[in-house]
Amino acid sequence: MTRLDVSPTAAFLDFIERGELRVAYDSARKRTINYNELDGANQKELEWVAARGTGTVVAGAVYHRRYSDRFDPPYNIAMVRLDEGPVLLTSVLGVVGAPPVGMSVRACIGEDGRLVFVPTKETEN
Amino acid sequence: MGALSAITGWGLSDLSRRPGPKITDLAKDACSAALSDAGVEHADIDGLILGQSDILEKSELTIAFQHSLGLGSLNLLTITEGKGTTVLQMIQHATLAVQASMAKTVLCVFADTPIMDKRKAGQNFARPSKIMNIPDWEIGYGCYGAIGSYALAASAYKARDGLGNDAFAGYVETCRQWAAMNSDAFLRDPINIEDYLSSMQIVEPLRLLDCAYPVNGAAAFIVTRIEQSEAINHSPVYVHGLGQGHNRRSALTALINNESTGAGAASHNALSQARLSASDIDCLQIYDAFSFSGQFGLEEFGFVPRGAAYEFVSAGEIGPGGKLPTNTGGGQLSSYYLQGATPLVEGLQQAAGRAGTRQVQKNDTVFVTNSGGCLEFHATLVLSPHRTLS
């Protein structure tokens, strides 16, 4: 059930907590809403569509300096554009160095509940 | 076109890499230096604009500074905060105030103390990056600091233009060439490609040498009406164009969506006010907290076409003797990072012909930029030693 009594951002995070990656679709304007624009959207006008979970790396970086006790460097961060259009800040598991721009990836929920991505089989070969 | 205002004096406090004087003491020293440079007395100042550093959680540089500086009654007193654009915004607000005859002689001062006891400067910049606009999202991925967004943007830029691990090496080397001629610069030893490639990775693709060199310090500027500008002991610098451009797109979102930041608007607004085009600019001072932002800025502000910055830099065009001498004091990478004051001070030195051995041959038009966030916020100035531009 999509909750109407929460903000679009909270709704998105609720889905992630349940292990689901969804995309906000504004049916009136016939467009998907990017995640960084959710705060300006109206939850009542949004349809939360299950994402296919596949996407492409559009930016990738590696932290070599420690900024937090939780993360031992080196670790990567990436921007992944979902096939549906919206872009996510995430991490790509199982790659050495920076996730290369153009790499095909698919979403998974890690053991820690984080939304992360792994390279799809085609890219691994 | 006639100028909008004049900058008749400017000055710096001591700049330091160690924790030291209070921010208000640094600001006082910069004000004294600027007043003496302009040849004006405290009593001549009738406007005060304070620039607050966004880095400091709670700056002690407040409007009470009027009294600690010993200024009399003022006709203008305010604080400006525009992230990285604060310093140029102070000059813009002062210009508007003198144009509107609210004040005649406005003192603008910016001070920053990112280096404090028991904390390295880097820690002060280590707040979670803001990319997703979802609370705490970045913390879950260890994405901290402005450098997180900039490193991602730099990776997208490199991929867009098919650049390798030397993408920013030429830019960094050129800044050092300029810094070697600037006695105020902290990093003056020449570097080559091997030095660059052996520099520590901070957030790949950005290395230590790609990052600004923060200092504690202050800078002050005296802005007057044109009519007031003659009575001083050196040539004033005239302000001919004011620009700002802010849109939702950061460097990162612009690059991954094949769009532009607000830099183009900030550039266009100032240039058109001065009735100039980018190709008329003799010397450029760009806010380059990271090498990437300086190089990418050449494109975004309209000085080279999209995709052409790497070649332009590699060909030596921003260095000594190049077509567009840029960051001629070493910029924020090699001279010192005092936010927007770094490019403004050097722009004034060049426009006034006071840049010593690094003085550019042609200084009729100097363009200065300030940028904040991950390039979401931009402010610009057109400076000239001439009161009118024909």
Secondary structure class of chain A reads mainly beta
- Mind summarizing the main beta sheet of chain B? 9 strands, mixed
Q: Which strand order spans the largest sheet of chain A, edge to edge or round the barrel?
A: 6-5-4-7-8
Fraction of helical residues of chain B: 25-40%
Radius of gyration of chain A: 15 Å
**CATH homologous group name of the largest domain in chain B:** Thiolase/Chalcone synthase
Poorly predicted runs of chain B: none
Number of strands of chain B: 11
Number-wise, the strands of chain A total 8
SSE pattern of chain A, N- to C-terminal: HEEEEEEEEH
The biggest sheet of chain A, with number of strands, parallel, antiparallel or mixed sense and barrel status, is:
5 strands, antiparallel
Q: What overall geometry of chain A do the principal axes of the alpha carbons give?
A: globular
Q: Radius of gyration of chain B from the CA trace?
A: 20 Å
> What is the residue-mean pLDDT of chain B, rounded to a whole number?
94
SSE class of chain B: alpha/beta
Per-chain topology:
The complex is a heterodimer of chains A (125) and B (390).
Chain A: H1 8-17, E1 22-26, E2 31-33, E3 46-50, E4 54-63, E5 75-82, E6 87-90, E7 104-109, E8 115-119, H2 121-124
Chain B: E1 5-12, H1 23-38, E2 47-51, H2 65-68, E3 76-80, H3 86-99, E4 105-112, H4 121-124, H5 145-161, H6 169-179, H7 193-197, E5 201-204, E6 206-207, E7 217-224, E8 237-246, H8 251-256, H9 263-273, E9 283-285, H10 291-300, H11 309-314, H12 331-334, H13 341-351, E10 366-372, E11 377-384
Parallel strand pairs in B: 2-3, 2-4, 9-10
Antiparallel strand pairs in B: 1-7, 1-8, 4-7, 5-6, 8-11, 10-11
